[in-house]
Backbone:
């Protein structure tokens, strides 16, 4: 009789455990073994379909600590063959002192090269790792900020948190870059669960560990079924300055001239 009672008690415990497990899954409180890792989430960001090519007409608005603004116009061309073969070409149209300044990123088989052509000096210069912290065309973006994004470049904490950002459910992932030449001590990515793109990125200074910059993707709209930020802003917390990229028009999967992503095209 005693043996039968013990068997019944064990059966009740097993049934209760199964019920609690089912409830935890339904309510989103399942054990972390069922959740994606930070690196897996960043890989989804990298893998997200953004068109094979794109052409974007944009405004770049620079604001200093006093709130005074300067506006520039530019066109950004992009090509993504796959995750290890990407090209990016930026061409400034105004103001007059910036006209025909161009920036080129070529990545082939995972090896990335960056070049800038400053029209005022009529000279093309290759960007190297020691230029990481140099401001790009006097904006709040540095050359490191313009690197192609690759999940494998980061080491992420095991714990993935969740919070609401701009009324969206987001994963919060803390990472460090493998590259010793990075100017940042750590990154905090807040990635939209639904859209699989970062809503916010917090960048921390390597010198003192303090928050240095905050990048935000805003005004997200679907264009050809691709979630597209119509506003990208970066704030320099220490200098109280900011740079905003405002999208006027974008086209995806269009045919681009074969010379678009060449150094020859930079000086045309």
Residues:
């Amino acid at each position: 009789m005693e043996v039968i009672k013990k068997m019944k008690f064990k059966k009740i415990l097993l049934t209760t455990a199964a019920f609690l497990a089912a409830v935890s899954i339904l309510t989103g409180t399942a054990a972390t073994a069922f959740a994606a890792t930070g690196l897996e989430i960043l890989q989804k960001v990298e893998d997200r379909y953004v068109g094979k090519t794109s052409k974007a007409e944009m405004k770049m608005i620079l604001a200093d600590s006093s709130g005074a603004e300067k506006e520039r116009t530019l066109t950004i061309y992009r090509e993504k063959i796959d995750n290890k073969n990407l090209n990016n070409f930026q061409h400034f149209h105004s103001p007059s002192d910036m006209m025909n300044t161009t920036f080129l990123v070529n990545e082939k088989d995972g090896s990335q090269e960056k070049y800038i052509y400053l029209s005022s000096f009529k000279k093309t210069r290759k960007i190297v790792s020691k230029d990481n912290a140099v401001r790009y065309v006097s904006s709040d973006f540095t050359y490191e900020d313009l690197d192609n994004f690759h999940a494998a470049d980061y080491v992420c904490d095991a714990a993935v948190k969740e919070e609401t950002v701009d009324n969206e459910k987001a994963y919060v992932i803390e990472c460090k870059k493998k590259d010793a030449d990075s100017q940042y001590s750590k990154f905090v990515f807040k990635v939209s669960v639904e859209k699989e793109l970062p809503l916010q990125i917090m960048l921390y200074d390597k010198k003192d560990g303090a928050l240095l910059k905050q990048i935000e993707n805003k005004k997200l709209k679907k264009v050809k079924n691709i979630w597209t930020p119509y506003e990208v802003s970066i704030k320099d917390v220490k200098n109280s300055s900011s740079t905003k990229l405002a999208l006027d028009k974008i086209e995806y999967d269009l045919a681009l001239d074969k010379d678009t992503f060449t150094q020859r095209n930079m000086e045309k």
Summary: The longest strand covers residues 69-82. The radius of gyration is 23 Å.
